[in-house]
Design brief:
With 129 residues, the chain is of the alpha/beta class. It has five helices and five strands, in the order E-H-E-H-H-E-H-E-E-H. It has a five-stranded parallel beta sheet. The chain is globular and about 45 Å long. The structure holds [cytidine-5'-phosphate] glycerylphosphoric acid ester.
């Protein structure tokens, strides 16, 4: 079984996220999503989520491409996750191009093109108008 992992906040879930998850799953048979916790988002990413972790987790678990959701508590857990879950491929959108190449000794590292013109930031901005 070919296992894929990806990381993110996935707040205000949108079709850009779904495009990423669909393509990530297509790279294997089993997709793990490491979902940024509320604390990690706030302390390390300065992101205030609209939906708390449990609700973002519930949304992700309802997606056909997603097989397992685990917490992302910090920036430094990726190599351990790859080993613990015997991951074959690490996937991120290419806004992270090159940032996770340190994982190459442990697994394939794939950066996929982002979906243009959609982001959680954009959604929040548009809703404020
Ligand atoms: N994404 C995308 N297209 C968009 C928006 C997002 O392909 N229009 C991708 C991002 O590139 C990322 C994933 O969807 O791979 C999740 O996006 P975010 O929730 O914004 O994730 P981020 O805050 O970048 O967290 O340790 C890594 C971090 O947790 C990544």
């Amino acid at each position: 079984m070919k296992k894929v992992i990806t990381y993110g906040t996935f707040d205000l879930l949108h079709y850009g996220h779904i495009n990423l998850l669909r393509r990530a799953k297509a790279l294997g048979d089993y997709l793990i999503v490491a979902l940024s916790t509320d604390e990690f988002n706030w302390d390390q990413k300065q992101k205030k989520c609209y939906f708390p972790y449990e609700q973002r987790k519930q949304l992700l678990e309802a997606i056909r491409y997603v097989d397992l959701v685990i917490p992302e508590n910090n920036w430094d857990q990726k190599a351990a996750d790859v080993r613990e879950f015997r991951v074959d491929t690490f996937v991120m959108g290419n806004d992270w191009q090159g940032k996770f190449d340190f994982l190459k000794p442990y697994c394939d590292v794939v950066y996929l093109p982002r979906t243009p013109e959609i982001s959680t930031t954009q959604i929040k901005h548009d809703l404020r108008r």
